[in-house]
Every structure is written in C-alpha cells, then in structure tokens.
C-alpha cells in the first residue's frame, strides 16, 4: 500500500475525531444558550443538535494566546477583511450567530455569540475596536500596523486604506468561569 492510499484515510480519521470533539463540546455548552438535553429527545430544530461553525485564530502559539485572551475576558472583538471572508467562501456573521473557537491543536475551547457586526473601511476602524481586540499593545496604531501587514500578505495588491473590514464584537457564552471543562 502506498502513502497516497493511506493519507486520505488518516485525514478522514482526524476529521472524525475533530467532529466528535466539537459535537461533545456542543452538548456540554448548548445549555448555556437555552437548549437543554430534552430538545434532542423531544425534537427540536437542526440548530439545537448541529454544532455551530468552529474556527481558530490559527494553529500556532499566537492563536492560543488570542484564545486565552477571549477566555479571560480581555478580547471581545475581532476583525477580518471582507475580501478574506469571500476568498474562503464565508459570509459576514450576523448578530446572534454562535461559533465554537478551537485552540491550535483543534480542541474546542469557547462558545461565542456575535453581539455586533459592522463593515467599515480599514482607515476608519476606531481605537475602541482596536482596544477590544486586545492584540499588540492595544493601540490603534499597533492594530493598523499588524493588520495591514497581515492583509498585504494575504490579499497583496487588493489591500488599500479603503479595504472593507468586518468588525465583530462577541460575548463568551461557555465556559463562563475557570478553565474549559474536559469534554468526554
């Protein structure tokens, strides 16, 4: 058997394990958004049973640091270039949307609810939003420098000061205190 024949099965197994971790986390967290376990038995909507989308801040130590800031309450906002969302086939989130944030290893760690969404040009992002992202030194200047560098790398010539940026505010729904509980 060649490596090419084994690799897809390995990736499928990794995906299945990740799906199980997300599903188990959702079962533990869903009560925090008013969905009880009886909804599964008595019948609810697909939204009650199907976990919300999951994502990470990346797969490195910086991603885990940003997640830690979410968990301790310092980070309550994020931003993405609208062009970046379009590239990966995602839509701008809506107020009330739920999402699961995973750490760099793919383990689910936080359930978030979107509380505010705004699309503004890059050069009109406020100092208040930059501070809510809790990145760098928290200043608007630091935020602009960091995000411009990142988006120039990803978008190349498409970056400009008038680039549309999606600003999202969120609240941590689960866990609410202490470390993320283990998911069996």
Automatic annotation (TrEMBL):
Gene3D superfamilies from the entry? Sulfate adenylyltransferase
The source organism is Cellulomonas terrae
UniProt-recorded name of the protein: ASCH domain-containing protein
Q: Where is the ASCH domain?
A: 55-174
Pfam families per record: ASCH
The record's InterPro entries line, in alphabetical order, gives: ASCH_domain, DUF984, PUA-like_sf
